[in-house]
Amino acid sequence: MQSLSAIVKQIVSPVGVGQIMCTVLVALLPGLLAHTYFFGPGIVINIVLCCVASVLIETVCIKLRKRSVYTALTDGTAIVTAFLLALTLPPLAPWWICVLGMLVALLPGKHLYGGTGHNPFNPAMLGYAFLLICFPLEMTQWLNPANIPETQQLLPGLIDSIRITLGSSHLDTAHWDAITMATPLDKIKHAAPENLISTVQGSQGFIGAYAWEWSNLGFLLGGLWMLWRRVISWHIPVSVLMVLALCYAVSNIPLAGSAVQVTPLFGLFSGAAMLGAFFIATDPVSAAASRRGQLIYGAGIGFLIFIIREFGGYPEGVAFAVLLMNLTVPTIDHYCKVKAKSRDKHEPG
Amino acid sequence: MNTTRNNQSPTDELPKNSPKQNLWQEGLWRNNAGLVQLLGLCPLLAVSNSVINGLGLGLATLFTLLFSNLIVSLLRHRLQVETRIIVYVLIIASLVTVVEMLMSAFLHEIYLVLGLFIPLIVTNCMIVGRAEAFASRNRVSLAVIDALATGIGFLLVLVVLGGLRELIGYGTLFRDAHFLLGEQARHWVIEFDFYDHGLLIALLPPGAFFILGLMVAAKNGIDQLSNRTHVSDRTHGTEPANLK
Amino acid sequence: MKPQHLTNRFQGGLVVSDPTATKVLPVIATGLPTTVVLPLQTSHNSYTPNVDSGQAVLKGQRLDHLTPSGASPLLAPTSGVIKSIARYACSQSPGGAVNSIIIDVDGEDNWHPDAQLFHDWHQLSRDSQLTALQASALIGHGGGGFALYRKLTSATKPIKTLIVNAVECEPMINCDAALLQTAANDIIAGAFALASLCGADNTVIAIENGKQQILQSLVESLTDNTSNNMTLCVVPDIYPVGAERQLVEVVCGVKVVAPDIPSRHGILCCNAATLAAFHSFVSTGYPSLRRLVTVAGSAIQKPANFDALIGTPIKDLVDIAGMHSPMTAEHSLTVGGSICGTGFYDFNAPVLANTNCILVDKPDKNPVTEVACIRCARCSDVCPAELLPQQMHRHIQAGKPEDAQAFGLDACIECGCCDQVCPSNIPLTASFRDSRATLRQRHQIEIAANESARRYDMRQQRLEQKTLEKNRRLMERKRALQKQTASTEQSSPQRPDADAIKAAMMRSRQRKKNRPGNDSTG
Predict the structure, then answer these.
(1) Quick one: average pLDDT of B182-202?
(2) What gap in Å lies between CA B139 and CA B150, rounded to an integer?
(3) Is the complex ipTM more than 0.85?
């Protein structure tokens, strides 16, 4: 019997929860590389900090809940949460932001609900939302992408980044202002109507927002790889991206009143759209179960991302969109009980 | 939390207590409106972001509750079953109007802070609940004690919750005390130098939910702990009081 | 005869690469066992024994009381003496043991005089053919254990197509392959006989892709028995294509979802081994009481197909096949195939008519640990019944199997695909099986409660009727009496008994006065 399971499982790869999570981590790499190229090593420090915090918190929680620490750590869910949270945090965020975010993500986000597989919300997004609400200033200070024509400032190196993150080297305000700036979505959100077109054009890269398009492309690549590896199904990412693009397309019709001037492509390749669609919304635990339900769930996320980006108080809405749709999952699941029906090809009806 | 915890010791000898003592225990700890019945959550969570706000709203609620219980108990023989709820609401609404006008006149700053939540006391289920469940069936002295016990229990929860939220959110205690307690209280504010940033979420409604949840958990934890010692003290063990 | 390659698919399923698929294990005939065990409760039947311990029985003798529902009877597989009727291990019961008849085999193997049901099948009318079939207790050999007679009579439409299920897609099971190789002619003859019994116009023999050897022997046999209305189909080798509803979907394009059954769509699907048994019954008139069982697994020395008597303890077969090392409690026993077989622990359990495979495996060196479900939905991707196993699992974990029913728990075919792909190693099929057993039990209790409530109501009604009847009779008598009195009064104004009453009253007064205790009151 044992040998047989091995045979079957070779066909359906990867095998266990741990391997699935490893695949997710590998799929994050291209986006992470692009991120590091444009925003410096700060993001790597974030990841290291989040991972360390996550392992420690997870161990303590599992010990308190008297479960097997080995099983809990090897399933890799905590590490994936750490990676996703770290990727959404601005580089050079203070160390305690990472730790606090992981604390919220794992304690109320996961273990209070009963651990892996029982959390109704995406833990990483819960941590992110908490941080964004508590520390709006720290959470919106993104670095200038490297080599942007406006500033010739070079990004701080690894050692400098570590010192800034740990708070041992305070940058003076002028220097800080020089290396940070609002994200393109933020700029567009706060641009005066008469400057809107120039703002959008100013942050335009090849297909999306300058620099951000590359990390988005990286995440798209990783997402496609996960699709190929059958770690995720196409339903959620496709419906998220389609609906998001559709919303942008509709809002660009002059008749619709608000001429947003952001093309669908720009919308898809800026902010955390790809990361959200392929890595965050597809978290199976907090997503809808049936394929039909997943389409509804993804469409809701896409729509909410657009609504929050355009009309909300925050420049990016992936986290809140995902959390809001997480709330609707029980309802979606209730109404999407797939039940097959007998059908006779020869005698219709 | 200290004040509430002190009231927990007498719970052990419930059967021997007089009904009045019982009322105090029920209102302050065992059946606390905020922590056990979870009534009146709307004001509890919305405005309790500092000690003084909590105190202000708690006092306003206490005042309303006290007089509504008193009046309902006085009128209890004249109430008709069909119209009693309307009468309660009329009484409470009149009292709340009085409170609102008094606060607007004498405590204007806190009146501005609490804003809509003072008129909303009318809809606090706790007050109607006490009127219906207790004052309309008991004599005046008991009704007054019940109102005091329940109101003070609620007030304490509001103050503790406000204190915790203020501490976490602003890093201070008793800020803006002069709103409520006069000019000499302006300097009562205690500032703690924990960190540069307060946790903003504590001041927002979600934080209130989290902290109230933790307080309920703490209350249940204390009860469990005292039950355990209680049971181990008397091995033949009568049923613990608060599991009645 | 050219086989027809079908490419139709059904939803879900697994592609399983089975290294043993092409190898056909040898068939070994077994003698009579020393003991035979017949469970009185199987998945579709429950029997009330009409014999007692100590009684001698003959081969083919009926051992149970007639049940009105037309269930198939319980026949003694060989002659012997009933040792006892007691609880005994049974692989088909969730609790692991049911009341069973245990027979000490005498080795004579004498047929009961009534065991031969007919001499010439073709001379029987259709009705008597069906009655004979019912009396033969022929149960589907495929795994479901459904009586062939019931299958035939449950059809609401005339049967048009007979599908011979020669698909053995589950790894390790080999008995049908062996049968196809050794007795293809019997199967074909059985198929002809059954087709003429049920009136099917065309017969399809289905076999899965990749079994060249067997395909060859089938093609040869079919060329010998030339027939226009018999076709040979090769279906894609996707587990569980051998399951009845999935095979029907692939072969006929008709999707049948539980609780619907194929025979309501004019399709009868029959296992090849059942047809071989049917053929042996039709040609001799004696019920078929043996079957082929595969004994294999990592702990078995010489895996083989055993031609075993129904009721033979599993242990006997395992002993013949031999084990690499002495049997220990750690050896795992699986009854059924390697994917959907049920793990069992008692080697004393008997081989039943639908036991196709026995797997004995070495102790698992690194057993997998079950972790929490992450709702990855792989189970619903492979589910051939198009269910959402992860949702059903969630409800079952919450202790609400009835909620899982709303997600189609009853339509689960227990194929085990979900277990195979689950990254969290959750034994989903086992939990579904258990929940269904729980629900069935609950349902039975409910039925019993309803029945007793109905009986109580009936009794109340009867009592009421009785009282009414009594009252009515009383009234009648009263009226008759009054009439009589009236008539006598008319004749004589003084009632005849009035004097008597007066006299009696006087007497009693007299008695009271004379009583000694009476003085004290005065």
Answers:
(1) 72
(2) 16
(3) no
